[in-house]
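This section describes the prediction task in plain terms. A model, or a person checking by hand, is given the sequence of a single protein chain and must write out its three-dimensional structure as a string of tokens. No templates, partner chains or ligands are provided. The sample shown here is typical of the held-out split.
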Amino acid sequence: MRKGTGFDSTDVLFIAANTRSLAVNRGALIRALQERGLSVGALVPDEEFLQEVHALGVTTWRYHLERHSMGVRGEMARFLELRRMIREIAPRAVFAYSVKPIILGIPAARLAGVGETYCLATGLGYLYGRHDRRTRWIRTLASYCYALSGSLSRAFFFQNPDDRDELQQNFLFRRFTRSVVVDGSGVDLDEYPFSEPSTAPLRFLFMGRFLEEKGIREFVNAARRLVPDHPEVEFVALGEVDESTVNGIGEAEVVAWREEGIVTLPGRVRDVRSHLRAASVMVLPSYYREGIPRSLLEAMSTGRPVITCDSPGCRETVIEGVNGWLVPPGDAEALAARMQAFIDDPALVGRMGKAGRELAKSRFSTELVNQQMLKEMPIANAERPLERMA
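The expected answer:
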């Protein structure tokens, strides 16, 4: 069902992985397109943040997405559904992000007659971080699907160079896809303003889904090492259990953490800004194959130093020893040692936090990221008229 602004036509149609990411991560890009006189619509699989999406002036249609399904018959049905819906909406351009919207949505859009399509990889996820036999097989299949969608698109955007290099190992992708690396999703510097961090008490904050590769276990284990000698230090983990994924932390383990009482677990929150203001240091020991984690950008914009992993996407946010530190993936001992440094010298918090804010301003603002993307989109650039694709 169509909802929203009442535009008679849609210039740019987003195929979203979820409504939250559309509102929070793509909102600035949507506004930039609208400022250029373009109407924006979106295919969305859920309604959790639908009010926020409509507040952006976006028309929405609901489509069916099975994030973890691999059944050929079901995926073909969803592909045909996407082709039918896109043909009915008749957008001038389609912008797909995340795995299945890219793999299914871009070929569907081209078969529906759309001549201008774009892909955005917001991180390659656990498929490219695990190496068991089944995952390797699925990864190989996904790489060829990415190559097909990339060859059909004007540009395939990446949020870090490691993800681009990974997919370019596939010859077809390397030969036929125009790859463009941008600096993440960006962060709105006004929405996440600088504030002086408090160190009394010193508070370490984790924000992310409770997945193994997100490093939540390492965060808890590092806290266990530090609390006996520093009971005044606080550890807070924002996030929620997602047992629908193969790498999700189980509910029983989270309940045990809550009963243990070393880490405070408020659950998932819709607006993290109050938690960022209350935090001293942001900790995300993720080796998930992130794009560039938005939580780190939000923390940097707020003026919080970061500790994260030396892994794709995460490493892009840190100048070692300037605005934070990198630790090896899966190493709770190294993580605890870096946290200990802030405990020993709280003055580091303010100094590194200010450096992080400056890095956010100079590289990661939504304005800069949008400029990188829009210059690659003929529909958004009157000086580069749309040419017919082969």
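For orientation: DSSP finds 15 helices and 13 strands in the chain.
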